[in-house]
Amino acid sequence: MEMKVEDRTGSNLAEQELTDLPVQQESKTAKGTAAKDLNLSGNAFTTYYTWRANGVFHAVNFVNGNVNANSRVFLNISEFSTDAQHRFIGAARMAVYNIAPYNGGFLAWVEISWGSPLNIRFDVFVDP
After folding, report:
1. Residue 60 neighbours by CB under 8 Å, 6+ apart
2. How far is CA 2 from the centre of its chain?
């Protein structure tokens, strides 16, 4: 009987050691009426980070002094080409699973299923 060999990505792989961390790019704040209409605090903001990676990472560290342990953090992942404003959906499967805010940032479980490093953009919405 011949056994099928599969490419595996997931929890059965050894965790990769991070060498480069995501880099924060810019911040914006939803203020006044716009924030109240969405049942948000007046300190809600958006930002984004860029990164180049592939594989499964159980605890990617996003440093941001405006985040605390009780913040609501929403994270989206996308691939970009030449610059972070030109995002697209390619053949790579990417996902963000768990997000855990802490005082000074948040951790996220990230999977980028591709054979080589890709340009990644993380869009973040935080309601501290």
Report:
1. 18, 21, 22, 51, 107, 108, 109, 110
2. 40
| H or E, element range at 33 | helix 32-37
Bridge partners (DSSP) listed for residue 57: 110
Residue type, position 31, single letter: K
Per-residue model confidence as pLDDT tens for the chain (128 residues) = 554 444 543 344 555 666 787 888 766 555 555 555 567 888 999 999 999 999 999 999 999 999 999 999 999 999 998 899 999 999 999 999 999 999 999 999 999 999 999 999 999 999 98
Residue 99 parent element (H or E): strand 93-102
2 in helix, strand or coil? coil
Its sign, for the CA torsion 25, 118, 53, 72, is positive
> From edge to edge, which strands make up the β-sheet containing 23-29?
23-29, 45-53, 118-127, 72-80, 87-88
